[in-house]
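Troubleshooting: if your tokenizer reports a length mismatch, compare your output against this known-good record of 267 residues.
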Amino acid sequence: MLPIRIPRRGGEDYEEPTLSGAFALALLITGGLGPALVAQGVASIVQDVGARKPGWRVRFNLGQYFAAMLAAWLVIRAFAVDPRLDILHPISSGQLPAMLAGSVVFALVNRIVVGIAVALYQGVSVRAHFRENGVFGLLTGSIILLTAPIVLAAATYSVAIVPLCLAPIVAMYNSISQSARSEHLARHDSLTGLPNRMFFQQTAESILEIRPDRGCVLLLDLDRFKDVNDTLGHRVGDLLLSRVAVRLREVVGHSGEIARLGGDEFG
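Known-good structure output:
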């Protein structure tokens, strides 16, 4: 129920890796593919229903987790290590490479599936999407999943210790969430939530590189905006800018990018 919200291109949608992945991957290693799919599937449905996501999003998330789990399981099996982990078969250094490889593959497959779907939905090239959104999301997912061996090490000592693993994972959640917010604020206007001048310039350069014959740029400002601030006050001026941002976003939708370049100027 605590997804890490990582803003995507344009800041209107988010990726939401969840902490349950670490425990599901631990179960994949010790219990096999079936139990892990059930556990991760239940966690995904509970989180999505709690967030009131539409049915197609719930089904898509189940599909992406199934693909990622299957790929991770195949990689782990390729290492030909004994997946049993109990008091008679504690975690060993020989099993660690398989666990790490499974974690990275899980995060990578999950990131690729989601990235391609989002790029197609937004009408941008897959290459451009991954260049703008890929690294941070992949690193975040990998870091969460790489805690799975820690969960397993605790479980082999005593199952009662496993809940204590939540403490460092929640601390990691807070740290990553703050980093995601800082990354978002660095490229977005705090008043309107629109991308700022720097993000707009990066997007324009990306479009020119990929589709130079299909891109266009429109710059505009608000006439007599200074009169609004002088007569009605800056609070009303800020409200006007926010309303203009909402209307511009509604008009353009996913077919383009809206940014506040500064003051009453938009692009």
